[in-house]
């Protein structure tokens, strides 16, 4: 029967690995977790010549755009995603590139300061994607080391597994902190600057829940791995040892 204490870190890192991959690739294709976004930007209604869409959901490596509507007048407004951008590791959403002709014009009534906000946080969003990618790589390496240990066990392999798990824990936790700051502080900044122009934003609850679930699993798994590698099991009692010798 396998020792649960030994495989527990592997279980946690595997689940966190899957969750982080889903967070990283959410919204990179249409109908693939497009509702797991960092934030959603809602644009004001412009003229019929406006190239802006009703909303833009910003993800870690891409963004999706679409329209808002309801089947019936009294029904709930739903999002209809029409297109998603190509995924990029160093992705940052730039409104001025999406509708450069009207982004600061009278048709859209777009506040230029919001475009400046996105420019100011450009390096922050890019670093977040890089940290998530490093975390995925570290977790994958930890799983490979565990598989290697099961196939050809050698001394010191547990140390490598813990090292990769700690690296994954640090990067995913820092990325989760950045995502949380962007979700709350940056969204509040957009809403403050968008007053009077019908520009608003809303943070993505699902992404935050998933990324912090992965971060928590990695913390617990890393602690368990540390105990397995560095904390030795207590020696057998002297009385039991004497009984074994007499027997």
UniProtKB/TrEMBL annotation:
GO terms for biological process: fungal-type cell wall organization. The keyword Transmembrane helix applies. Coiled coil: none annotated. GO terms for cellular component: cell cortex of cell tip; plasma membrane. Keywords: Membrane, Transmembrane, Transmembrane helix. Pfam families: SUR7. The chain crosses the membrane at residues 7-27, 129-152, 164-187, 207-231. This is Actin cortical patch SUR7/pH-response regulator PalI. It comes from Penicillium salamii.
